[in-house]
């Protein structure tokens, strides 16, 4: 199945903004994170299809995973 991953802020360094990844049916968000080499503790916001997601969430064909790192400023 095909999953779209959108990277934001510092996650874009060395990556495209949006990538399509082929994963096995029944894959979880964590398995996709392993593929894109992002550790769970690096993520501040994780959305699946624009809604709050979890690491253990099962993905479906055509889902969009959006990943945001912690962002500071001031």
Number of domains: 1
Q: Any idea of the CATH class?
A: Alpha Beta
The percent of residues in helical segments reads 10-25%
What integer value in Å does the Rg equal?
Answer: 12 Å
Task: Tally the helices.
Answer: 1
Report on this model:
With 74 residues, the chain is mainly beta. The chain has one domain: Beta-grasp domain (Ubiquitin-like (UB roll), Roll), CATH 3.10.20.30. 11% of the residues lie in helices and 30% in strands. It is built from one helix and five strands, in the order ββαβββ. The chain has one helix spanning 29-36; strands at 2-7, 18-22, 45-48, 51-52, 64-68. Strand 3 (45-48) and strand 4 (51-52) form a beta hairpin. The mean pLDDT is 95.
Keywords:
single chain; 74 residues; mainly beta; Beta-grasp_dom_sf; ThiS/MoaD-like; Mopterin_synth/thiamin_S_b; MoaD/ThiS family protein
Short description:
With 74 residues, the chain is mostly beta strands. The chain has one domain (2-68): Beta-grasp domain (Ubiquitin-like (UB roll)).
Describe the SSE topology.
Layout: E1 2-7, E2 18-22, H1 29-36, E3 45-48, E4 51-52, E5 64-68
């Amino acid at each position: 199945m095909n999953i779209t991953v959108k990277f934001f802020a510092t996650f874009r360094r060395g990556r495209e903004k949006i990538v399509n990844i082929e994963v096995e049916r029944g894959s979880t968000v964590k398995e996709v994170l392993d593929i894109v080499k992002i550790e769970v503790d690096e993520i501040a916001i994780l959305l699946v299809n624009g809604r709050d997601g979890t690491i253990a969430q099962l993905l479906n064909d055509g889902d969009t995973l959006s990943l945001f790192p912690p962002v500071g400023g001031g």
